Amino acid sequence: MLILNEENSKLRGTKHQLPPNILEIFKTNIYKYPQHKDASGYKKALHAVENDGNVSMEWLKGMKNFFTKHSDARDIEYILCGGSIVKNFIEGKLKQLTNSTDKKRKGHTNNPTKISLGASSLIGLHGEKQSSNLDMTKSILNNIIPKI
C-alpha cells in the first residue's frame, strides 16, 4: 500500500470528468430510487450529478473502496452506484491515473530478500561450531570407551 500512497500523492486533489454515460447511469438511479436517498450509494451518485461529473481523485478512490465493500449485484447500494459498469470504469480510471504518474521512489529498506546481518544469521555459525564440537566429542569418546 505504501507504493500506491507515494504514486497517488501527486494526484491528491486533482479533478476528473466522468464520461456522459456514467453520469447518465447516476441520474437514472437517482430518479428511479428516491426512497433510498439516505443510502451512501445514492449520496455518492448524487454528488457526481450535482457536480456535473466533475469529481476529485479522493472521490474516485472512495468509490473503489465502496465497490470493494459492496460487490453483490443485488445489493441496492451496488445498484445505486451504477453496478459493474461504473465499478469497471472506476478501476480502469484509477489504474490509468496511477500508471501515468512519475514513479520516482526510493528502494524499500524492509526488503525480504535482503541478507540480514542480525542475530538470525549467526545461528548458522553456531550450528557449524556445534557440529564440529560434536565430532570432536565423538572422537574423544571413541578412544576412551572400549568397543564391544
Description of the molecule:
This protein is mostly helical and 148 residues long. The chain folds into two domains: 99 residues, no CATH class; 33 residues. Helix content is 63%, strand content 4%. Strands 1-2 form a two-stranded antiparallel sheet. α4 packs across α6. The termini are far apart.
| Helix share, percent | 55-70%
Biggest β-sheet: strands ordered side by side in the sheet: 1-2
Strand content: under 5%
Count up the helices.
7
Q: Which structural category fits the helices and strands?
A: mainly alpha
Q: Largest sheet, described in full?
A: 2 strands, antiparallel
Mean pLDDT: 77
Give the overall shape, derived from the CA principal axes. Answer: elongated
**SSE string, helix = H, strand = E?**
HEHHEHHHH
* Radius of gyration, taken over Cα atoms and rounded to an integer in Å: 30 Å
pLDDT < 50 runs, ≥5 residues = 1-5
The figure for the number of domains is: 2
Question: What attributes characterize this protein structure?
Answer:
single chain; mainly alpha; 2 domains; 7 helices; 2 strands
Question: Could you give a short description of this structure?
Answer:
With 148 residues, the protein is mostly helical. Helices cover 63% and strands 4% of the residues.
Chart the SSEs and their pairings.
Blueprint: H1 2-8, E1 15-17, H2 20-32, H3 40-50, E2 54-56, H4 57-69, H5 76-80, H6 83-100, H7 119-144
Antiparallel strand pairs: 1-2
